[in-house]
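Re: export button greyed out
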Amino acid sequence: MNDFSQYVELLGRNARKAAFHLARLDGATKVAVLLRIAKAIREGKSALIEANANDLKEASKAGLAPSLVARLILNDKRIAAMADGVEQIAAQTDPVGQVIEGYVRPNGLRITKMRVPLGVILFFYESRPNVTSDAAALCLKSGNAIILRGGKEAFHSNQAIVAIIKTALRDAGVDENAVQFIQTTDRNLIPLILKQDKYIDLVIPRGGESLIRAIVKDSTIPVLKHYTGNCHIYIDAATAGMDEQIRNICVNAKTNYPGGAVCNAVEHLLFHKDVATRLIPQVCADLAKAGVEVRGDAHTRKLYPSAQPTSAADWDTEYLALTISIKVVDSLDEAVAHINEHGSHHTDAILTSDLRAAEQFTRDVDSGSVMVNTSTRFADGGEYGLGAEIGISTDKLHARGPMGATDLTTSKWIVTGNGQCR
Amino acid sequence: MNDFSQYVELLGRNARKAAFHLARLDGATKVAVLLRIAKAIREGKSALIEANANDLKEASKAGLAPSLVARLILNDKRIAAMADGVEQIAAQTDPVGQVIEGYVRPNGLRITKMRVPLGVILFFYESRPNVTSDAAALCLKSGNAIILRGGKEAFHSNQAIVAIIKTALRDAGVDENAVQFIQTTDRNLIPLILKQDKYIDLVIPRGGESLIRAIVKDSTIPVLKHYTGNCHIYIDAATAGMDEQIRNICVNAKTNYPGGAVCNAVEHLLFHKDVATRLIPQVCADLAKAGVEVRGDAHTRKLYPSAQPTSAADWDTEYLALTISIKVVDSLDEAVAHINEHGSHHTDAILTSDLRAAEQFTRDVDSGSVMVNTSTRFADGGEYGLGAEIGISTDKLHARGPMGATDLTTSKWIVTGNGQCR
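Workaround output, generated via the alternate export path:
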């Protein structure tokens, strides 16, 4: 373990030094660096595909599930999309230096609250290699150094992407430790790096709940959790004339992402009892036709007998698959209570024509994104207009919901006087 | 320990339920509740003084330091100030419901980012009883439930203040669990309550560094740290004609708070070598005259021989006393590096007439408050115009520097459509 102790300390110290350097860069320099990285990604295509082939070979040897292999693949289109993503981040407004508040106090002190980089970010993520370039670009844009720990399956691909980024940084005269990649997949390193609170300002873990829980437990650094989503759609009593819209939204929210394996897919539908008879048979038939396994409570099964019975565990389950469970509720209050109890505070929607129901739902459901008359699939940084996202925070602190470059900044109070004493 | 397990779970569950209730209150109701609490504090003066007498008796038995006893005392003036504080918080703009951002996407989705209460806050604090009413009022204003854990020395005083608040809450028809007070000073409870992440959204500890470190280590709930301050003033080369201002600011920053026992007092002065000969003798003489023990590096002692020699440990020490240490530096860069290395990222100031030096210092010093030509003692929620403060965050996440009611909120994305699918 001694080696890892020294290694994590080195990663931290290097990152802190790079962060000091990054915080001093002006916006034009950061844009130039990002455009250089995008160009290098396009030009490095064959090296990336070669490294990716190593990962795919190991994945096939290890018998990785086809849906995971699909996420892992780098091809011409995906590499071009990675470069596009970096260019889009380059084109965003620079969050650093923005004045959040500013005023003069009665004693003449000028008070300014200004956005500044957070410093050093430690980022855990899973199998999609494009997350590597997205995360590095978002951190560079916001003036932060990043330490990357990607999924084991994508190790060679991620390593190749970081090598390209580092070359571009060096060529631009920027400290290449702005982007560091942990050169081992050994899990024993994790508890050690999570104690480097002297150097690291924030941990962002994206991945399974058990990984995130382990990180929270071990970390003395603040953690912004990105749990996956147990999302709901509640279909209200006041939905006359909305049948087609409701059918479209429910099917879209479940099936729009291949296999439903995404955090903003809907997992549970709650129907108000007054509309259950009218809507459940049609919505269930649509879902079944789209290849979804439908589960339901007793009331649902009476209206749609092909539904499988739900067990208590269903309501707390994020399927991440083409499975959905359906419950009939007596009231909006019951729907809200169910969602706050069983949901993951990620994204939940109401379908209604009743303004007061919409207002009550958006006020009372304690989730990062609360939607009215649209698909939960829109909970996404790109769809919200943030450019790329580093993840979707299910935390309430600092940032909630889709996180972009601005969420990777903190603020600094700048107080200017001319000799004032207290 | 079994009892504590049940007790902390109960505290958490009660608070979560109260938080749901508080989040639904409109602003006028919250103002009315706060004004009722202020009135009840004024009317409860004799009960408060009686409870406080118990604490003072125990403090005297325990031989508590006079400076701590002084903080503990409740008298007519302090009780009136507590009530005034609650009224000032009542008069603030309600942060809940404020729209931080709002726009329409090309597909017609309306996106709104709105401030909402955080939920449940667990607050650790020390001996001053007025913090109890300030913290409770800030949490009520921002729609949060609070669980209070005050200093052992102020146990009876805090209990009496909370009893008054609870009566006022009940009289106003508000869930009295909005404000809960931990009814034991047993430290074994602490690690257990720090695991109630199901119910508690944020821990704010104010106190000694060792307490805060222990909390960070044990907590699975996000912690906003309020370390005390190791603050600096750097006196730049470009200070011609500023002698009197410099002398006033240095003495004010060190001695304005009785005994210097406050986090925003200055602990270290760094003089640029070009002005050391001119300024060190006068500033040191002023400080000594104000009762300050002056320590200095070799260069300082040559210019002011009565200074005591500094040891390496001095530079990392927050004295919280009438002691100061002085160092001569070769450059602004050296001053910045020293502050970022040895400071606590709380509050640091530069005294200069050079615009570029001021800009470099405010950009490069990595602290919550960075000041130009004024006293570090202004780092305070009241002085920044936030009304009361729940503390001064030395963290970078979520809130940095003095924290008011707005910093006790999070945001929620509200997305409204008319049938959009992805």
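Chain B has 14 helices and 16 strands. The button fix ships in the next patch.
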